[in-house]
TrEMBL record:
Transmembrane annotation, as ranges: none
Protein name: SprT family zinc-dependent metalloprotease
Keywords attached to this entry: Hydrolase, Metalloprotease, Protease
PANTHER family reported in the protein's UniProt record: UNCHARACTERIZED PROTEIN YGJP, UTP PYROPHOSPHATASE
Domain YgjP-like metallopeptidase: 33-227
Length: 238
């Protein structure tokens, strides 16, 4: 992995902290062994579908110290105040007024109809972020395609729970819409990462070397996602 020795991305500018995260046990039919994963909702223990509960309890007990350390090390998830929304690591005022008929952003403020409830606002916000994300990715992609000498067959915007991006063997690249809440530099890292997979469809040394050649601060972006990725939630509270 390339090491630039620099972490130059700011903490998300959120406002109000919520309760600590928890551990969730999830059974998978195809999983062959238990493994812990840190997700936006806390720590998940993913286990084989038929693993006995007593074994699960033993695993949790044996890793209690590790779980406590990981949860304590993670920053508490933050929630936006009622009158602001997040975009590219910054918050912008949300104005609700009778004169508005739709959801929009003028570069400094978000606007929506006064009569909208939380559900209507959230739906419009997510749809707007998806549209903007697709525009952002398709605008940035040519830069990396020129540098790498490759081209994606298809670009899609997803809303994955644990993956920031993916590249299929057929050249379809998916980018998580939640990255629109992160600083642009972090979103650019994920874009560069997935396009580098069009050259090396693995995480070999050659892959990391190729990625570092088009995105120098790999370590900084990875560190930011590890520390703050779980806070990137598309959720509006009233």
């Amino acid at each position: 992995m390339a090491d630039s020795g620099r972490v130059g991305y700011n903490r998300p500018r959120y406002f109000k902290e919520v309760n600590p995260m928890t551990v969730t046990v999830i059974r998978h039919k195809r999983r062959k062994r238990a493994a812990f994963f840190v997700t936006p909702d806390g720590i998940e223990l993913r286990i084989p579908a038929r693993l006995p509960n007593r074994v699960v309890e033993t695993i949790l007990s044996n890793h209690a110290g590790w779980i406590a350390e990981r949860l304590a090390a993670l920053p508490k998830r933050d929630v936006l105040p009622d009158d602001r929304l997040l975009l590219h690591g910054e918050t912008f005022p949300l104005i609700k007024c009778d004169s508005e008929t739709t959801f929009r952003f003028d570069g400094e403020r978000f606007y929506c109809p006064l009569a909208w409830d939380e559900s209507s606002l959230r739906e419009a916000y997510v749809a707007w972020l998806r549209e903007r994300a697709l525009t952002y990715v398709t605008t940035r992609a040519p830069h990396y395609e020129r540098m790498l000498g490759v081209k994606a067959n298809r670009i899609r915007i997803g809303h994955q729970k644990t993956r920031w991006g993916s590249c299929s063997s057929t050249g379809t690249i998916s980018i998580n819409v939640r990255l629109m809440l992160a600083p642009k530099e972090v979103m650019d890292y994920v874009i560069a990462h997935e396009w580098a997979h069009l050259v090396h469809f693995d995480h070999s040394k050659a892959f990391w070397s190729t990625l570092a050649s088009v995105y120098p601060d790999v370590t900084g972006a990875m560190a930011w996602l590890k520390q703050y990725g779980h806070t990137l939630q598309i959720k509006k509270t009233n």
